[in-house]
Write the structure tokens for this entry.
Amino acid sequence: MNKPDKSTAEGILFTDQYQLTMAQLYYRMGVHEKPAQFDFFFRDYPDYGVHKAGYCIMAGLEWLTDWMRNVRFRKEDIQYLSAQRGRTGKPVFEQDFLKWLNDNGNYQAISMRAIPEGRVVHPSVPLAVVEG
């Protein structure tokens, strides 16, 4: 993978467009200024066919927190979003929202509590709680 592809694959745009269009809607309605909470959990243990796992181990938290600490919208990301067009040819993302993303598009204003890595975890129990 070349460097631009790697930075995109590991960057803040590594999400689906629905999340970004909903963020724009929240911005437009002023919801982005209100406190919110997201609980991250899984619903069922993995099913491997003949063997169904009876537990899971929390992993990846260190990588996630490092990523959150360092990632932000780059100039190239904003340009990419600016070039997106809907079926009518109209821009998907408005310039005021893109400016807001450029100025505020990082994770500095949120906090996260999580189960420590290496612990046994179970379905429907929040692995991480993100607030901000």
